[in-house]
């Protein structure tokens, strides 16, 4: 995880349903305030809906890049060569969206408060990253245990970066 980075270039290759389910199950098992799991995961594959999401995201990002972000922030982003355009939202075969829930609705219509919502959702989102990594290791090496026996923990950053010279 130490070598993790934000990826902005995505393949349009379909993701197997088993992989998607593993990612969601891994993330959904994250700890949360009072174990209330204040999140909802959505997988979006419909091209028309992905296009609408892209339009909305690009509108917000345009505003960010043209007035909301400080000059210092924009300067810090230069090394990533990023901008307000978000082509990857329509290129990727699916989008995984995590919605946070400030409260739950009980059967009687009353609200039940959730705790540490932003922190809990952040942990769940981080857990989402370990699911695909585990799948990649399993696919390439048979199992995480086999990988660790053969290469050791020091090889993990290279796997994350897509290198095979470990």
From TrEMBL:
Organism superkingdom: Eukaryota
Keywords, ordered alphabetically: Flavoprotein, FMN, Oxidoreductase
Transmembrane segments: none
Domain Nitroreductase: 2-125
GO molecular function, one term: iodotyrosine deiodinase activity
Similarity section: Belongs to the nitroreductase family.
Protein name in the entry: Nitroreductase domain-containing protein
């Amino acid at each position: 995880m130490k070598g993790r980075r934000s990826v902005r270039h995505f393949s349009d290759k379909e993701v197997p349903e088993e992989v998607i389910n593993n990612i969601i199950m891994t993330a959904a098992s994250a700890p949360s305030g009072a174990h209330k799991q204040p999140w909802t995961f959505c997988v979006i594959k419909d091209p028309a809906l992905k296009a609408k999401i892209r339009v909305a995201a690009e509108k917000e990002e345009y505003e960010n890049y043209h007035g909301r972000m400080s000059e210092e922030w924009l300067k810090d982003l230069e090394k990533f060569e990023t901008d307000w355009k978000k082509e990857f939202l329509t290129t990727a075969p699916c989008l995984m969206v995590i919605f946070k829930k400030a409260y739950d609705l009980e059967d009687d219509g009353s609200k039940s408060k959730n705790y540490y919502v932003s922190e809990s959702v952040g942990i769940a989102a981080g857990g989402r990253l370990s699911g695909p990594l585990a799948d990649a290791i399993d696919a390439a090496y048979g199992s995480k245990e086999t990988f660790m026996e053969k290469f050791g923990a020091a090889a993990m950053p290279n796997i994350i970066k897509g290198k095979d010279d470990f």
